[in-house]
Amino acid sequence: MNNTRRKFIASSVTLAAGAVASVAAPAAPAKGKTPLVHHVFFWLKNPGSVADRDRIIEGLKTLRKIEAIKELRIGVVASTEKRDVVDNSWGVSELMFFEDLAGQASYQDHPIHQKFIKDCSHLWDKVIVYDAMDV
Fold first, then answer.
1. pTM, whole model, 2 decimals?
2. Domains identified in the chain and CATH numbers
3. DSSP string across the chain
4. Are 41 and 73 in contact (CB under 8 A)?
5. pLDDT tens for each residue of 34-54
6. Phi and psi of 89, rounded to 5°?
């Protein structure tokens, strides 16, 4: 009985150590599936208008129906610490991930994207786009 108990305890300790090691070792980020990042920042014509901000957000949500977009995140300015390197002058952002340049190009001409621009462009004063490839 003592021998069985020792084997059980030894195997439990080994199992626990393996679990801790697997939790402590960060996984490498997955590459290749969505290497193109498309980040867009919108400055509203009426920055204090929650209705205008919400209308742009609702318009951006319609873009989720575009198959070329593998992931879409929509955000507003966070109340983080004010620092010289932080630009919080914008109102709404969208962060998209595409499999390739062709997917991003097809998104630009997609009817849903064109409808979003038609329906919401009167709400923004300025748009800046940052496109990047995963390395």
1. 0.74
2. 36-133 (3.30.70.100)
3. -HHHHHHHHHHHHHHHHHHHHHHHSPPPPP-SSS-EEEEEEEEESSTT-HHHHHHHHHHHHHGGG-TTEEEEEEEE---PPP-TT------EEEEEEESSHHHHHHHHH-HHHHHHHHHHGGGEEEEEEEEEE--
4. no
5. 799 999 999 999 999 999 999
6. -85, -15
Q: What is the pLDDT of residues 57-83, one digit of tens each?
A: 999 999 999 999 999 999 999 999 999
Radius of gyration of the chain (CA): 23
Euclidean distance between the first and the last CA atom of the chain, given in angstroms as a whole number = 56
Instruction: Give the length of the chain.
Output: 135
DSSP class of 21: H
Amino acid at the residue 82? K
pLDDT tens readout for residues 104-125: 999 999 999 999 999 999 999 9
Spatial distance between the Cα atoms of 39 and 134, rounded to a whole number of angstroms? 13
Q: For residue 39, give both structure tokens.
A: 């980040």
